[in-house]
Design brief:
This protein is an all-alpha fold and 77 residues long. The chain has one domain. It is 71% helix and 0% strand.
Length: 77
């Protein structure tokens, strides 16, 4: 989960099997609609970064860079 959640920005990470920190964070979010909305927006933006379109763009960039480096190396020989 640490890969997907930035603690305090896109959500909260709480210790496993420790209900008190979970309840505290839940109460904080219920009491603060502005925080809840901001965290929701940040989580959505993070999720969009992890989507297929973003992954495809990163993969395309990787292969383009690899091809460019290979061509430059071959031209230098």
């Amino acid at each position: 989960l640490k890969t997907f959640i930035n603690n305090g920005e896109t959500g909260y990470l709480v210790p496993w099997r420790c209900p008190e920190p979970f309840v505290q964070r839940r109460e904080m979010l219920l009491a603060n609609p502005l925080l809840r909305e901001a965290m929701g927006r940040a989580a959505r933006a993070k999720a969009l970064q992890m989507g297929w379109g973003h992954a495809a763009d990163r993969m395309l960039g990787f292969y383009s860079s690899l091809l460019r480096d290979t061509l430059e190396s071959a031209a230098g020989d």
